[in-house]
Specification:
The chain has a single domain, classed as Rossmann fold (3-Layer(aba) Sandwich). It is 33% helix and 19% strand. It is built from seven helices and eight strands. An eight-stranded mixed β-sheet has the order 3-2-1-4-5-7-6-8, with helices on both faces. The chain is globular, with a radius of gyration of 17 Å.
């Protein structure tokens, strides 16, 4: 993997990065990919009974701790408010994501699918805005024509993040099945940094990792040749 390869992950809240896709982040970071994490909010409403400003401080630090363990090179925020992302017009939100893409120039982008996996309005808004931003970036030649956009595919691995049952089948486009078996302990350690969210990993990371599935899934929705649905094993592979 070339050190110049760049991956941009666009999420809504702290912990969206660790529970469903922490293994893939750790894998690619270990291979020299420069990973940038763009989070729309600081999760201001995520700790019941705690003021928004203090919650934001706590959750931002949790995110930075997790990101450091995963090997994320840079963490950015859009400074939107938890629970209010969908109130921002999608064009305006897309423009802000586009500005980051213009600076980062990722080879691949990961975000939620159109349903936000869990249906959370913040997730849905981030999905729509990121997709629009990606299309505009490619059309404006801000990204390479080979750049790819992936949606996080609901699977057993997403259970830790959103509580969504696996789909009967992985469909809607070619699916990248990323083997993260060697990075499950790191994924658990990162998830455990989100203490305020009561992660479902209470034991030693090495033991908790044995309970997790070894693949995380991503549906390719932009980029690459036109293919009928199939499965491949690397976000950056030549299909």
């Amino acid at each position: 993997m070339c050190a110049q390869t760049r991956l941009l992950i666009v999420t809504a809240h702290p912990d969206d990065e660790s529970f469903p896709i922490g293994g893939a982040i750790a894998r690619y970071a270990s291979q020299g990919v420069r990973v940038t994490l763009l989070c729309a909010t600081r999760g201001e409403k995520g700790i019941p009974g705690v003021a928004a400003a203090e919650t934001a401080r706590i959750r931002e630090q949790e995110l930075r701790n997790a990101a450091a363990l995963l090997g994320v090179a840079e963490v950015r925020f859009l400074d939107l408010i938890d629970g209010e992302v969908a109130q921002t017009p999608v064009d305006a939100l897309a423009e802000r994501v586009l500005a980051v893409m213009r600076q980062v120039r990722p080879d691949a982008v990961i975000t939620f699918g159109p349903d936000g996996i869990s249906g959370h309005p913040d997730h849905v808004a981030v999905s729509h805005a990121t997709t629009q931003a990606f299309d505009r970036a490619v059309a404006g030649q801000m990204l390479a024509p080979t750049a790819r956009l992936f949606y996080i595919t609901p699977s057993e691995a997403t259970l830790q993040g959103c509580g969504v049952p696996p789909l009967p089948q992985l469909a809607g486009g070619p699916v990248a099945a990323i083997d993260v078996g060697a990075f499950l302990t790191t994924k658990v350690r990162a998830s455990q940094q989100h203490v305020s969210q009561h992660p479902p990993f209470t034991g030693a990371p090495e033991e908790e990792a044995k309970k997790l599935v070894c693949h995380e899934y991503f549906t390719l929705v932009r980029g690459g040749p036109a293919l009928s649905p199939s499965t491949f094993d690397d976000l950056f592979s030549i299909l």
